[in-house]
Design brief:
CATH topology of the largest domain: Alkaline Phosphatase, subunit A
Distance between the termini: 62 Å
Order of helices and strands: HEHEHHHEEEEEEHEHEHEEHHEEEEH
Number of strands: 16
Helix content: 25-40%
Structural class: alpha/beta
Shape: globular
Number of helices: 11
CATH class of the largest domain: Alpha Beta
Strand order of the largest sheet: 8-7-4-3-9-1-10-11-2-12
CATH superfamily of the largest domain: Alkaline Phosphatase, subunit A
Length: 500
């Protein structure tokens, strides 16, 4: 019997015959570049646990997020829908944002809940806090939550020790807002959060959640959107000073240590062979931070741009006995995780327009991907400009290009914030297999094959645009400082009194 047949029989046994449906762990790094992991070629990164997952699982070379910044990318991951549908645009949500991921959107957790899954989230939510915490994970299908409801640089960072001994933040965080809170479910547990002990708290939380779920014989879904490796980096005593890459490397090592703890817990509880572990990142590296901002490898530009450096991510799928070790060059996306998990669990898909496709055949048999197209929206999508770029098969067409502050300081002038919006008619077309760095646009004139490709790309673009209905922008609802989480809500003067 060949390995693909064996894998199919294994998954059939687990998902149909067994009383224990598969468990899911979804790991989501922050601002991690395509070239940042050891298993993706970085020469000095120390990520032994992620490298082991890559060696024992399926490593993707052509995996995409949907936005080059945090909040919209997270919305797409959890809903299987482009952020333009749910209204998580333009830009990102802040501590006092009035909006958030709309409660009528269906998350992966809400897909699994009707099947009796225990669901938990820990780490960086960044999909809204809102009045009385109305947009927190516990309102979106998660039974438990431990974490920071937005990005950890969205507050004074005087309490954030980035690198012992007691060296404070490199650079600046936000000022004039509340200190960063640690929340448990809907209550503030600590404000300001102790970053040095934070990763240990997450490891303990995850270990307890997995162990309790197994003891109850309840399938589980754990979502861990990490703060690592977003700037400013931090690391506790188990990782600080232990990497070769300074604070960025230490931060990444601390994330890797948590991955190791999760895998050890799966082993100890005896469910590692019935658990799909999926790892990827929200967007590309913040190159403006130089050595503190990550690395996109050979890809062009980084965070904030619709070049591949901003949106192509490392991704690893690991499931012993089910997913055969290997590398896939098939195209896939964070959009595809919800329909894949739903299929593997036997759950119903939400009755809305989904942009994701089921990756089961790709994961189990390493077959062809159902995804033929990837859409690239800028940080600030509008119906007027619509998509900036489109990938069809191995070809990527740029209808608009623009640099970004997040990708400043690089030698490539196309990445700079001073590289202003440019329209391209005909679009710039790159063969990403021959030219993954997007350096050499193909010549259209006098090339009937490229002219035919361009006609097809324009047809796909028009079909997609006809299917896209922009949701009401949640971020354009603005901010209200009184909505920012405060452990002493009636204290004065704010925000300095929000301390407990």
């Amino acid at each position: 019997m060949d390995s693909s047949c064996l894998a199919f029989l294994n998954i059939f046994f687990f998902c149909v015959c067994s009383a224990s449906p598969p468990n899911f762990i979804l790991l989501f790094a922050d601002d991690l570049g395509f070239g940042d992991l050891g298993c993706y070629g970085h020469p000095s990164t120390l990520t032994p646990n992620l490298d082991r997952l890559a060696a024992g699982g399926l490593r993707f070379t052509d995996f995409y997020c949907t936005s080059p910044v945090c909040s919209p990318s997270r919305a797409s991951l959890l809903t299987g829908r482009y952020q333009t549908r749910s209204g998580i645009y333009p830009g990102v949500l802040y501590p006092g944002s009035r909006g958030g991921l709309p409660l009528n959107e269906t998350t992966i957790a809400e897909v699994l809940k009707p099947l009796g899954y225990a669901t938990a989230a820990m780490g960086k939510w960044h999909l809204g806090y809102g009045a009385n915490g109305m947009f927190l994970p516990t309102k979106q299908g998660f039974d438990e939550y431990l974490g920071i409801p937005y990005s950890h640089d969205m507050g004074p960072c005087s309490n954030l020790t980035c690198f012992p001994p007691d060296v404070k933040c490199y650079g600046k965080c936000d000022t004039g807002t509340v200190t960063v809170p640690l929340m448990h479910n809907e209550a503030i547990k600590q404000q300001p959060v102790n970053f040095i002990d934070l990763e240990r708290a997450y490891s303990d939380f995850a270990t307890s959640f997995i162990t309790t779920s197994v003891e109850k014989k309840q399938p589980f879904f754990l979502y861990y959107p990490s703060h690592h490796t977003h700037y400013p980096q931090f690391a506790g005593p188990g990782a600080a000073g232990r990497s070769l890459r300074g604070p960025f490397g230490d931060s990444l090592l601390e994330l890797d240590n948590t991955v190791g703890t999760l895998m050890a817990t799966l082993e100890k509880t005896g469910v590692i062979n019935n658990t799909l572990v999926f790892f990827t990142s929200d967007n590309g590296p913040e190159l403006m931070r130089m050595s503190r901002g990550g690395n996109a490898g050979l890809l062009k530009c980084g965070k904030g741009t619709t070049y591949d450096g901003g949106m192509r991510e490392p991704a690893i799928a690991y499931w012993p006995g089910i997913i055969k070790p290997g590398v896939t060059h098939e195209m896939a996306s964070t959009l595809d995780i919800l329909p894949t998990i739903a299929h593997l669990a036997g759950a119903k898909l939400p009755p809305v327009m989904l942009d994701g496709v089921d990756m089961t055949d790709l994961l189990i048999h390493q077959g062809k991907s159902k995804r033929e197209t990837m859409i690239f929206y800028p940080v600030d999508p509008t119906e007027k400009y619509s998509l900036f770029a489109l990938r069809l098969g191995k070809y990527k067409a740029h209808f608009y290009t623009r640099g970004a502050t997040h990708s400043d300081t690089t030698p490539d002038k196309d990445c700079s914030v001073f590289s202003l919006l440019k329209a391209h008619d005909p679009p710039l077309i790159f063969d990403l297999e021959a030219d993954p760095s997007e350096h050499y646009p193909l010549t259209v004139e006098g090339r009937p094959d490229i002219e035919a490709l361009l006609a097809k790309i324009k047809q796909v673009k028009l079909q997609f645009e006809a299917s896209m209905v922009f949701g009401e922008s949640q971020i354009s609802k603005g901010t209200d400082p009184d909505l920012a989480p405060c452990c002493n809500p009636h204290c004065s003067p704010k925000p300095s009194c929000c301390h407990c």
